[in-house]
Design goal:
92 residues, alpha+beta, 2 domains, 3 helices, 2 strands, elongated
């Protein structure tokens, strides 16, 4: 366990062992949260929304091209059934 000191403007330095293990670089984004009176930092990735949608549609096109023998309405019904079953299990 490493000790860190709060500096001006409430800044702290993340120990190098932790930075290395998480491959943190200058400019990376961390989510700060408070859990059970402890400060928790989680690495986060900022994704451009338009790029994410573009990539999603590319993947969907690949899936559709490999599964063109299936009826899309049937697939949608199967997905909805799976979602409903999952929700029921979570409530139980």
């Amino acid at each position: 366990m490493s000790l860190v000191k709060i500096k001006e403007k409430y800044q702290v330095t993340i120990p190098s062992a932790i930075r290395d293990r998480l491959s943190l670089k200058v400019g990376d984004v961390l989510e700060a949260d408070l859990e059970n009176d402890q400060i928790v930092l989680r690495p986060k990735m900022i994704v451009d929304k338009s790029e994410a949608w573009k990539r999603l549609f590319e993947v969907m096109d690949q899936v559709h091209s490999k599964n063109d023998q299936f009826d899309p309405k049937e697939i949608e019904q199967d997905v909805l059934m799976a979602i409903n079953e999952s929700r029921k299990r979570k409530k139980a």
